[in-house]
Structure formats: structure tokens, C-alpha cells
Amino acid sequence: MKKDWIKELRLLVNGSFLADEPMKRHTSFKIGGPAELVFMPASSEDLIKAIKFLDENGIKRYVIGSGTNILVSDKGLKGCVIKLGNVLKGIKILKREYQKVYLNVMSGEPLRRLNEFAIKRGFIGTEFCFGIPGSVGGAIAGNAGTRLGEMGDIVSSLTLIREMGELQTIKRERLHFDYRECGIPEDSVILSAEIVLRDGGKDVSMKSVEELKEYRKKSQPYGYPSAGSIFKNPKEDSAGRLIELAGLKGLRLNDAEISQIHANFIINRGKADAKSVIKLIDIARSEVQRLFGIRLELEIRLLGEF
């Protein structure tokens, strides 16, 4: 790794640079030690140049959207965190045909904005996005969804930045969407997506959103930082149900707590650290395994050393 790589990167690309930046400022969990560098590119060209530079020089890179669905180590992160949630935004109507509408959506666009854009114009297909935090790119990477649908249902193609900054477009038939997975290569960064929706159903969209809004109000914790669902749901069951049956709702370590509203959420009651969250994760996994013989898999991404 080059000693003065941060200085070189500053000279090479445009954007915002934050050295020794606490990651708790960039995650929905409000947890995480300092990153060696947080870089927010000014454009897609700057993003491509930065990835090429980092890969050529063997510098570890972490790409995040809005910082949801991740837990960053208290020790922080060596290398470069590339944050797309405040940049790479934009939604463009590409074409309409046979009651379908095709959109090009940049990866940094918030899911909330995509949903608002679609509903305002009477496009059907994004209703399930309501209430899911984060960016379009992150949501696609994790195939985010609800009982109404998931990102894989509406993606037509993806434009990726591969290792060394190479661009690649992958059509839907070559993608392998599965539960909380989209099957893109590990070295890939999603630059943009082609989304296909149905045209002409504003009333239908609003009805679905209102129903989901009421459901989320009753079933998910609000008011405290969290990373969303901690575990993937086991086949034909619910991680939250199993953790609740294990008697772990409300279990608290320091300021980290398994939510009393939904047991598959861990909330930050003020000054929670990653160490406490990991301990709660281990306890939940251990008890569910002991009582039900089911090994819970993480839905959140762990970044750094634990």
C-alpha cells in the first residue's frame, strides 16, 4: 500500500474527503470507529477513477450507500470507504411500451425517492419499497424487500463497475436474485439500474403503500438508530419469531438492545458499541440454535475486524 495514497487520490479525483472519520456519522446504527478515509465522489467518472486507483495500489475499499444494513467495527476501517448515498443520484424515464415503463436509476438515489417518483406518476411496482431505508444500489445488492415484493422483481439490468474500474452491463437473465442476494460478482459496485414498472395505477400504488405504512408502524421499532433486520428469515419461519420465543426480547447490553417491538431488530439506545451488538447477535444465534436447531444467518454486513 502506498504511504501517501490519500494525497494522491485527492489530486486524481473530485469529491469530498474525510480522513480519520468516525463511521458512526455515516451509518444508520450510529456505531463505528474511524475510517482511514471516507470519500464521496463528485461524479460517476470520479468514482470509476477512484476504484481503479485503489485497486491498482492494493488499497482496501468498502462501498456503502446510505449506511443502512451494516455494522462497523469499533476498531474502525483501514483503507477507503466510498459513500454513494449523498451522490450519484438521478431518475430518468427511458421508454414506455406495452403498459410498461423503463427507468434508469442511479445507485445513490434513496429508495424513498424512487417510490415517490413512481407513485406520483402512477407507476406500479415500487410499493414494497416504502419504509425501507437506504439507497437503490444497496437495496439491489441485498435484494431488499417486504411481503409485497423485492428489488429483483423490478430490475431489468445493472451497470456495474468491476475491478480496476471496468464497466459492465448485466441483463436480468444473467442475474441470480435470491433471498437477500442478487448474485453480482464480489468486486462489483452498482453504478445504475434499469428498472421496469407497470404504467397507470396511482390509486393501486397508494392503497398498497398505506397498508404497508400501517403494518410497519405496528411491527417495527422507530425512534432509535438500528441497521434494520439483523438476521435473514429461515425458510418458512421468521427470525424475529424465533428470537422472541427464546425469551430474548428486551435483552440489553450497555446501550444495545434487542427490540421489544420486533426481536429481529437491535436498537442503539444512545451510546451502543459494535462489541455489545455482536454479543447480542451471538446470544440470539446460540439460543435459537439450542432451542430450535436453526442456525440464523446475518442479513446485515459486518465491516472491519470483530
Keywords:
306 residues; alpha+beta; Uridine Diphospho-n-acetylenolpyruvylglucosamine Reductase, domain 3; Uridine Diphospho-n-acetylenolpyruvylglucosamine Reductase, domain 1; 3 domains; six-stranded antiparallel beta sheet; four-stranded mixed beta sheet
Write a brief structural summary.
This protein has 306 residues and is an alpha+beta fold. The protein has seven helices and 18 strands.
Description:
The protein is an alpha+beta fold and 306 residues long. It folds into three domains: 79 residues, Uridine Diphospho-n-acetylenolpyruvylglucosamine Reductase, domain 2, CATH 3.30.43; 118 residues, Uridine Diphospho-n-acetylenolpyruvylglucosamine Reductase, domain 3, CATH 3.30.465.10; 83 residues, UDP-N-acetylenolpyruvoylglucosamine reductase, C-terminal domain (Uridine Diphospho-n-acetylenolpyruvylglucosamine Reductase, domain 1, Alpha-Beta Complex). Helices cover 26% and strands 29% of the residues. The protein contains seven helices and 18 strands. The strands form five sheets. Strands 6, 7, 8, 11, 12 and 13 form a six-stranded antiparallel sheet that branches. Strand 16 and strand 17 form a beta hairpin. The longest helix is centred in the C-terminal third of the chain and has 19 residues. The model has no long low-confidence stretch (mean pLDDT 90).
